[in-house]
Amino acid sequence: MDAATLREGTPKLSDRARDAIRDQIISGDLPMGSALRESELATSLGMSKIPVREALVQLECEGMITTRPNRSPRVFEMSQDDISSLGELREMLETEALRLAIARNALPLATRLREITGQMTEALATRDARSYKLLDNVFHHAIFAECGNVYLEKTHHMLSFRIQALRNKLSREHELNERSLAEHQHLAALVAQGDIAAAETLMRSHIRDTTQNYLAQESAASAAPRPPARVMQAEMERFAEDAMAAAGCDAPTRAAVVRALSHASSLGVDTHGYRLLPHYLEGFTKGRLNPAPEVRFLRESAGAALLDGDDAHGARATYAAVDKAVALARASGSGAVAIRASSHFGAAGAYARAIAEEGLLGFCFCNSDSFVRLHGGAQKFHGTNPISMAGPAGENEEPWLFDMATSAIPFNKVQLSRALGIELPADTASNALGENVTDPELAEMLAPLGGEFGYKGAGLAGISEILSTALSGAPLSFELPGMISDDMATPRGLGAFVMAFDPAAFAGLEIFTDTIRRYRNAIRGSSAAQGAEVMAAGDREWAEGKRRALQGMTLDQTAVEALTRFAQEKGIPPLEVVGS
């Protein structure tokens, strides 16, 4: 045999990769919805990423995987509507194939089905669920193979991967499989008897019952949110210190990140708290975040400075900017610091609060990668672009603390809702067409603050955008790499902006704090609508902080599991939770 003949008979690497990945999807080794990372697939298949990439393109054309910008491809998923529609189509195709097969090839079909049900019986007896599900697929395929209609057989083949993947995901109960086996055995007996009418009736009933079981199990799985765990703050901070040290972070970075995350989690802002720690740890270990940055000031004048974060964690860069802004304000009455080459910094209120704790009025702004549509828009444009302000209210008084995203909700609210299995508030998120949705799994972008007056929220986002970019030279939101991306090696280069004002340089600190107290007390004492409550900025957070100081912080189970895996990988003491 010559070389040309050998080449013709050898499948291309991309075809081998495609077939291998397809087999893993059908067998359930790659479950529905699982991410398909090129590097991991290439390693497992023993080839480069190029044929894997080509294979994924082919599998997308087949409908076996889905792709989204800046995200790894994923194995297809099925909604309840998809499952119902597939069940209806199966019923039409399989009853017709069964009728034709009995009429044309009853004896060979009966022989084949008896052989398969015998193997299914053995698999079930040994509780070999994997083999049982594969044999279930073989049973139904045998009917199409004997129906004598090649187009009907090809149509079933096109759908079979979805049917089998659904079996792998949802057929988990041994009792259901026992009932399924009895129906398959009865069906094989009816084929042997040549009873087309009874066989069709049983097939139709079998498919309907199976579809209803799939729907019931899927509904139960999606409707069962997992309650968050509770962790005491001291333990959470201990673990975060250990974990970041294991990730190579220097002491200033660890202190800054712990301070920022504790601010958020202790006050109930869970979207920006310790649930982000797994994401940050991945950034430190894979290169997105510099674990030991050289933060430096490129320019400085009497009341302004420009900071280069050296791709630091956002907390490390922004707390350094806060210290500089406070020093500038004490020297000249006001201080402003623009930040570039930074990254996600958590809750903006942490930095305004840090300024307020120094006895000054503080502001903090930042932009982030596009995830918020414009008013009336149908594409991602702004980031969530928060605005925060905090000021002292006098001795033994909590500061005034205001912190808001200019989107209807922060993006991390979507992630938290996905993790907890709860719906989003109405009119806060949109699908790819700009239509509002409440299912967090369907959210492609956020709505701007303001509902039908969302142009106001979009305008506020523009303030954060300009302050964070035009004064620092940082990229605009739509120019930034995504926060949620499989590329955790590339720094993002975010901008931010902090301002500090010294009340002593104006009417005086005493007048300032007295005004804040009078204003806050007036808000708290104002009349409330029936069944409603009026609160001043920060009231909800300070009250939650008191509860959490006693009961512990909350942390969603997805984050707990990720931190448990990190601790095991790095050999550090695990995070101790106190319950849920």
Describe the model.
The chain is an alpha+beta fold and 580 residues long. 54% of the residues lie in helices and 11% in strands. It has helices at 3-9, 13-27, 38-45, 49-61, 80-125, 129-145, 150-170, 174-193, 196-222, 233-246, 251-266, 277-286, 314-332, 349-356, 411-420, 454-469, 509-525, 539-551, 557-570; strands at 65-66, 74-75, 229-231, 296-300, 304-308, 334-342, 361-366, 372-373, 380-382, 387-391, 400-404, 429-430, 436-437, 445-446, 494-501, 553-555. The strands form five sheets. The protein has a seven-stranded mixed sheet with strand order 4-5-6-15-7-10-11, with helices on both faces. The protein has a three-stranded antiparallel sheet with strand order 13-12-14, with no helix packed on it. A hairpin with an 8-residue loop joins strand 10 (387-391) and strand 11. Helix 2 (13-27) packs across helix 4, helix 2 (13-27) crosses helix 7 (150-170) and helix 5 (80-125) packs across helix 7 (150-170). The model is unreliable at 1-8 (pLDDT under 50).
